[in-house]
Write a structure and sequence with these properties.
By secondary structure, the chain is mainly beta. Helices cover 6% and strands 61% of the residues.
């Protein structure tokens, strides 16, 4: 049995759940989008996050991912994350992918299957296989720079001995000068939903930066802020 205080366990486990999920989904949003990398195109992403929950230590996390298009309308990514709270560190390793359902990548309505698995390393233990997930993703492009996204999926935690139904809704708008703004609502059937806001700025075709803020509903009221980057090559 771990000797960590309950508040510390809460912070680390919650931020590990963030890292083990498709954390780089559609940065800066937690909602996944349907974009799939073309063969031999790659993206390197990273972000820093801070999670504050009432009655728990503030947890800080770093995460990075490298993803490349493989062909067959599929991309594959490898991700690493670590979270620190109260002097303890937990880590995650993830393998994730996206497969576009349908052949026309320029259609206004797109469907994608996102999937993945992750291993977690809690303080004082070794890496253990934990999470598998699958997520059906839809994105619809509208006029005037608007795009909407919807997710519905399932996630299973081996260490937590539980399965969850996950969902997310997001809308974003290109406002000009390479800037996108958006809002989202996401969660699962085991906890209060989160509401979030995000901004993305494309400095060039290859480089973009992003930031997000989210708050969980209910008495928990956890708050999550993050800032990240993406490099395409």
């Amino acid at each position: 049995m771990s000797s960590q205080p309950a508040g510390l366990q809460c912070s680390l486990l919650l931020v590990l759940a963030v890292l083990a999920a498709p954390a780089h989904a559609g940065r800066p949003f937690s909602t996944e989008d349907t974009g799939v990398l073309e063969p031999r195109d790659c993206e390197w992403e990273g972000f820093s996050a801070r999670l504050k929950s009432p009655g728990a230590d503030t947890a800080r996390a770093l995460s990075t991912q490298l993803a490349c298009g493989l062909g067959l309308r599929t991309q594959l990514g490898l991700a690493y994350g670590q979270a620190k709270a109260g002097g303890d560190t937990a880590r995650s390793l993830g393998l994730n992918g996206k497969t576009r359902l349908g052949g026309d990548s320029k259609a206004p309505l797109q469907w994608t299957l996102a999937w993945g698995a992750a291993a977690l390393k809690e303080p004082g233990s070794s890496f253990k296989f934990d999470t598998v997930y699958a997520n059906l993703v839809a994105s619809q492009v509208y006029g005037n720079g608007w795009t909407a996204h919807a997710n519905l999926g399932t996630a299973h935690s081996r260490l937590g001995h539980q399965a969850s139904t996950t969902w997310a809704l997001a809308a974003e708008k290109a406002v000009g000068a390479g800037v996108d703004l958006g809002a989202e609502l996401y969660g699962d059937d085991r906890s209060e939903p989160w509401v979030g806001l995000g901004v993305r700025w494309a400095a060039s075709d290859a480089i973009s930066v992003n930031a997000s803020w989210a708050r969980q509903g209910g008495s928990n009221g956890a708050r999550l802020v993050s800032a990240g980057f993406k490099l395409a090559f």
